[in-house]
């Protein structure tokens, strides 16, 4: 009996020991090897603040993403290039890739954004929510939250690796440590050089040379042909396109804008010519088709036509709006909807052509104007001021160019400027307009005086501006930010003047009317000088308006564009940029009709005592 009981006890103990070892094995065993897309389908959770579809990730929602992500698992592939439009989930591809390497294959990772500020936003708004809401990532990050862990917004550690967020404009953030996994986001927005260190893409890539299994993921919306990093990388890759089968003949083909039929939001097959709707096309099984053989560098091109989050009807309507809005809006549509680069026409503005298209105005404010803006350039002995009218589609009318002379150290010239900016302007029907927004240059020798002047008049939307032109191809939007860090706490608006100059130049190249005689949205009008009135638009003005041109430069093999002065005086060109900024700051509804004119004595009695009867000559305001 005792012998039998001992055997039973030994057997039970052995079973408990085996069960314990099995549990330990499950805990310490590495997770099963998955591809990036399989990992995302298993472990990735979408956060409510970062996704319109929170919850479990499903690659089948956008099946074109699978091959892009899984290319990272191909031992032959070192670089993955994604040239794409917006609304196709390219940021989610980046996040899934980062999450995979944090969980499945811990490595040193660097994610580079165009600027250090954007890197911080990426960390806070996208990476942190993913790590918080995806349980496996949360567990790996939990042990790194100690005060002495060294974790910051821009640097996070996890077992077996770390991730650093860097800005392409910050050489210090790029020169940190050896990196195996390099993620480069929106590379077309990178500066030509990170400080004086050189091309940021090259700098980061060098950090991975010691790893035999290095990977580089490069993602961006393209910008200008000939100066687009992502297009250059794509052209050197396998050049793959997402192709769907024709519902009629079965021929796989890219979703091409040239084949889109506006009526019914359909697409024609390039082989058989049959026309089918969006749902019919997208019901087919798509695949990536390469135009070149290149396993080491795989490139993928996507446009919004493939997106499950953007209907073709919407894309068509946005194209119509962009096409009606002029070259700059069409350029943005080509970049962000088609994922294609924009080819600059390179027109040299001709001062004589612009001078000769001046026209007669029959009132202070011509027909079509909805709102007025003003721009002020500050010189040592004068203010140069231009008033500009704006209408539907950003069609514009120069109203007056005025030079106000005086000693800027004395109060009189500032008083004269203030009075000028307060005057009213009248159209042919009697409507009265005031200047809705003014942008005033704060550069030069009178910066504090400008701040003081503008601070006291911010209620009239008179703002100090400071132009910023990096001069190295770095993209800045026209309205690039605001600050009040000055003695007077005045709002100072930072302008990306290169973008502003591009917008102004594009508008100046537009004809006044199309072949059918219809007004062209975005075109520019200039008043003719008459014996009764000189509004300031003489030869000298047009020389200044055409005083700069865009030229291509190459720095350490990286092409970019800069604006170069070709004439001495460029104040009219600068003021055109400031006026463009003013209308973008204001953001009025330029498609809204003007208020009707109600002559005195014809309006009905007011329904309420506090309502006052309008007098002739309503004032346009925003």
CATH class of one domain: Alpha Beta
Cα-based radius of gyration, to the nearest Å: 31 Å
Output mean pLDDT.
88
CATH architecture of one domain: 3-Layer(aba) Sandwich
> Are there runs of 5+ residues with pLDDT below 50, and where?
600-622
Helix content: 25-40%
Query: How many strands?
Result: 28
Residue share in β-strands: 15-25%
- Overall shape: it is globular
The total count of helices amounts to 18
Question: Could you please say which CATH topology of one domain applies here?
Answer: Rossmann fold
> In the CATH hierarchy, what is the superfamily of one domain?
P-loop containing nucleotide triphosphate hydrolases
Main sheet attributes: strand count, strand direction, barrel closure: 10 strands, mixed
Structural class: alpha/beta
State the end-to-end CA separation: 100 Å
Can you tell me about this structure?
Strand 11 (260-261) and strand 12 form a beta hairpin. Among the domains are: 36-222 and 235-239 and 291-310, P-loop containing nucleotide triphosphate hydrolases (Rossmann fold, 3-Layer(aba) Sandwich); 353-536 and 571-586, 2-Layer Sandwich (Nucleotidyltransferase, domain 5). The chain has 18 helices and 28 strands. It is 31% helix and 23% strand. The strands form 6 sheets. Strands 3, 4, 5, 6, 7, 8, 9, 10, 14 and 15 form a 10-stranded mixed sheet that branches. The chain has an 8-stranded mixed sheet with strand order 23-24-22-21-16-17-18-25, sandwiched between helices. A 3-stranded antiparallel sheet has the order 11-12-13. The longest helix has 27 residues, at 2-28. The model is unreliable at 600-622 (pLDDT under 50). It is an alpha/beta fold and 622 residues long.
